[in-house]
Amino acid sequence: MDIYCRKAILEALSTTRYARTPEFAVLIKTQEVQSTTLRSYQFFNRHCDADGKLVHVCDPSCSEKRTGETKYHLNFDLGAVLQLRVQRGEAFSIAGHRPIVAGCTTNEELAYIAMACYSKRYGQRHYACAVTEGTKPENLRFQVFDYETGRSRMRAPESFVVYVLRYEAAAYANIWDLAKYGADGLDPTGPFAWRPMKQEDISPPQAFVEEVQADREGSESDEEDAETDSEENELDEEVWETADEGSVFSTD
Q: How confident is the model at residue 114 (pLDDT cuts 50, 70, 90)?
């Protein structure tokens, strides 16, 4: 039972006679997660500066590493988390959630792992990034290819999803595989933590990397084949707010 369903059930039962029974006392104890097998991986990389502050979050196919930065990696089972979607016009809030920490920014804000999402018009692309409390989709920018106009431009996503713990943090304690991936890590959220990237570390499945690379190459090919104008012929109907540099992180 995930943390949200469990909370709703406990709140509903707390006002009934059942709340005074031994069965209710058992129910309020943290439930263990039964699954012991990682089913579907999600991978992220991050870069931190010399002081350990978050600079950049990206997917594993990103090989970029700036001078003076340290590279870390994190992976988790999608079955052990939930995706909190934030639409345009909405602001991300951690209230009532346990989002997976991406790191601490240079502004001393906690940032959280997210995925920016684009519609079919932009190839249904998804970009790894990190967001802070109050971030809106309008604050993010990525270079995307518009299949309707045949042009590439910087654009805000339609939405983004933030990965949050599905269960109480203590419920993961007895799952050996999750504990292994979070062991000796940094900036932990429940069982999931960041580890410095080393040569001997297990790489993400080659199929995952090839899928991301093929997606990018396909977009680049479409851009080359499409007829593009040297300058915009019409103004964009929407005006986007400028991202607050230092509080919102995304792929370059």
A: very high
Q: E strands along the chain, which residues?
A: 41-48, 54-58, 70-77, 81-87, 101-104, 110-117, 126-132, 142-146, 151-155, 159-165, 186-189, 192-196, 249-250
pLDDT tens per residue, range 204-251: 445 445 554 555 555 555 545 544 443 444 434 443 333 343 345 554
pTM of the model: 0.70
Q: Nearest CA to 152 among 58, 232, 208, 245?
A: 232
How far, in Å, CA of 137 to CA of 91, rounded?
8
**Structure tokens that stand for 176 in this block:** 């050996």
**Alpha carbon distance 15, 102 (integer Å):** 38
Report the Cα–Cα distance between both ends of the chain, in Å, rounded.
38
Pairing of strands 186-189, 126-132: unpaired
Cα–chain center distance at 100: 8
